[in-house]
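Entry for the shared binder. Reason: the reviewer on the internal report wants the predicted structure included alongside the sequence.
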Amino acid sequence: MELWRRRGAVRILMLNYEYPPLGGGASPVTKSLSEELVKLRHSVDVVTMGFKGLKKIEEINEVNIYRVTDFRITVIFGLGKSKIINIS
């Protein structure tokens, strides 16, 4: 039976730009929090940015990790014109 189908279990979605092995600060906190929630019998999915050499979808310590394409969009304002550029 899937974890989230257990009585009292909640399906949780964590969103963080970085997730181990990348990043620092919020990255290990998100990992730790996700793993502790799984220990409490909840189902946790993490959506984070993809990076070369990392699997797009994987399960680590019963946490489902989805690494997606990074679309950074910056809006540049100048002289009455605005322009959207992708800087990935």
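Summary line for the report: The chain has one domain: 3-86.
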